[in-house]
Amino acid sequence: MKKTGSATLSPSHNILQELADICERADVEVHGVPFGLVATTAFGNVLFEVHATTLRFTLTSETENQCLQLIPAVVSALKHCSCVDLDSLAWDGRLNTNRPLLNFRKVVVEEIQMLSETMKRIWFSAEDLAVYATELHLRLLIPKSQTHDVEWPFYDASGSIKNPGTDNPVQMRAYTVRELDVPRKRLAIDFYLHHCQGVGSDFAHNAKSGDTLGISGPGGGGIPTAQKLILAGDETALPAILRILEARRAAPPLHVFLLLGDQADEALIPQEFRGHITCHFRAKEQSASWEQKVLDQAFQMAEAYSWVAGEKTAMRRIRKALREQGRASDTYCIAGYWK
């Protein structure tokens, strides 16, 4: 699936450097090509090409859904560029304005389970959830208040996500689809209960039956399909890693490395997967050794695909090390889940 567009640049511009800087801050891989650069995301690639004062961009994704998710990301990046005339931004093929977000559903909190002192599972009910059956992530739309009416975000004519100007704004965060029961119209998300404040963390701490939120998706990369796979992540990535392990019982990863808070978190790992997993613990000051172990395995098994997720600063260090070793961007996925 491809989608192309263009925008006018100011005569004196440094658009490629600005885009590279924006991608770097967003933990998006980029590499240079003649007259442009390519950004590699979980939804596909974006080729930016400069011709005098015209910027052309070509989005390439495996599916239409992924391409539709890329469009607002590109618009958001261009809005942060000082040399782009946003009024000139145009897509080849008209985009309908005021469209609801992709696969938008209202969801209602139905059940809350404490899996451990640090992990809370929240079950949501909603109509028509089959579209999320093959997705690893979705975007959770969290209203500021549950006591005021909600106007949900939508796509405007440029393809950007527009949040209506109300006193009950909605914020979006990506989460793993941990369990899905389509016939019973239920899905579950596991929330790691951080001690720090944040939109998702605050919701998880205070959630109650009947709360109404929204979902849209996909919200990130899918379940990795590489035959040879290395998985690694901290406690926030545990729901995603367990979902991947469940989906790949017939082809388990070569190695799985977890960084958990303490040994009590090990109880969250089903017995059937414990033989595949090596655990490190923050309580034992093993964060650095976990990071090094992940890199050592990635370097030793260069033919394997590495999927790693966790705290953003650590993920940037791992990504930088892989780049410096010359690893191609299509041989790994490094995701910053929190900061």
From TrEMBL:
<comment type="similarity">
    <text>Belongs to the SIP oxidoreductase family.</text>
</comment>
<dbReference type="InterPro" id="IPR017927">
    <property type="entry name" value="FAD-bd_FR_type"/>
</dbReference>
<dbReference type="GO" id="GO:0016491">
    <property type="term" value="F:oxidoreductase activity"/>
</dbReference>
<dbReference type="Pfam" id="PF08021">
    <property type="entry name" value="FAD_binding_9"/>
</dbReference>
<dbReference type="InterPro" id="IPR039261">
    <property type="entry name" value="FNR_nucleotide-bd"/>
</dbReference>
<dbReference type="InterPro" id="IPR039374">
    <property type="entry name" value="SIP_fam"/>
</dbReference>
<dbReference type="InterPro" id="IPR017938">
    <property type="entry name" value="Riboflavin_synthase-like_b-brl"/>
</dbReference>
<dbReference type="InterPro" id="IPR007037">
    <property type="entry name" value="SIP_rossman_dom"/>
</dbReference>
<dbReference type="InterPro" id="IPR013113">
    <property type="entry name" value="SIP_FAD-bd"/>
</dbReference>
<protein>
    <submittedName>
        <fullName>Vibriobactin utilization protein ViuB</fullName>
    </submittedName>
</protein>
<dbReference type="Pfam" id="PF04954">
    <property type="entry name" value="SIP"/>
</dbReference>
<feature type="domain" description="FAD-binding FR-type">
    <location>
        <begin position="102"/>
        <end position="225"/>
    </location>
</feature>
